[in-house]
Amino acid sequence: MNLRCDLHTHTIASGHAYGTIKENMDAAYEKGLEAYGFSDHAPALDGGPVDLYFVNFRVIPREYKGMRIFAGVEANIMDYHGNLDIKGKVYERVDYVIASLHTLCIAPGSKEQNMAAYIGAMSNPYVKIIGHPDDSRYPVDYDELAKQAARHKVALELNNSSLHPESVRQGARENVLTMLQKCKQYGAYILCGTDAHIWTDIGEFAAAREVLKEANFPEELVLNTDVNKLKYVINDNKYVKW
Ligand SMILES: [Zn+2]
Ligand SMILES: [Zn+2]
Question: Which of 48, 181, 233, 235 has its CA 20 to 30 A from that of 72?
Fold first, then answer.
């Protein structure tokens, strides 16, 4: 499967990632990506950027060497209602919002609490991507998750980093295979993300591609195969032109 877009990546602004926007864009270009997005952690994560970092995204060129550029955020889900650590103008200036559960911001809850957190986040009209819902430390009901994702028109992320043997997330491979079966059943879309914290990982989807194949997952439900399919997860603002 040709995965041409990577929207889950981090820059030095995240505080624990190592590439500048330019180094990342150059790496994405060299990998032959058609679209590259950076999604730095939101302010609640230690070392993350302040609100103004995102508010100033109007200066970011949305094209580079013929490649589409998107400027997003990986927001933190802060409670079991799905409230995020971003507000106001940040929502209007970012091209997309990934909503994720991180142990530094929210303690793992019960299956019911984690589901309420995800469904609450999906109900936020700016949230179109749920980041790495593949971690056994945050158990979820995959049947309900896929059903709700399809209903809210939100994509579930297939996170390539979670599949790495050294990932802190647990049980990802098995969880992803379950999630893919449920997404197939309910017609929920998947967005593959590398979650690169250094430019060399950008566009590297080998592990994700392998599980998609194993799950016999239909290409039409994978948003990375065509830039235009990203409309499903990109918000309307004056910076993005189709
Ligand atoms: Zn990170
Ligand atoms: Zn994350």
Answer: 181
Q: Quickly tell me which residue has 């591609």 as its tokens.
A: 209
Ligand 1 centroid–CA 231 distance in Å is: 25
Is 5-232 in CATH node 3.40.50.1580?
A: no
CA of 16 to the centre of ligand 1 (A): 6
- Series of mean pLDDT values for 10-residue runs along the chain (242 residues): 97 98 98 98 97 97 98 98 97 98 97 98 98 98 98 98 95 98 98 98 98 98 98 95 92
For ligand 2, the distance from its centroid to the CA atom of residue 26, given in whole angstroms, is 23
Put simply, whether the predicted model's pTM sits higher than 0.85 gets the answer: yes
Ligand 2 centroid distance, CA of 127 (Å): 14
> Which residue ranges make up each domain of the chain?
5-232
Q: Is residue 13 exposed (0-12), middle (13-18) or buried (19+ Cβ within 10 Å)?
A: middle
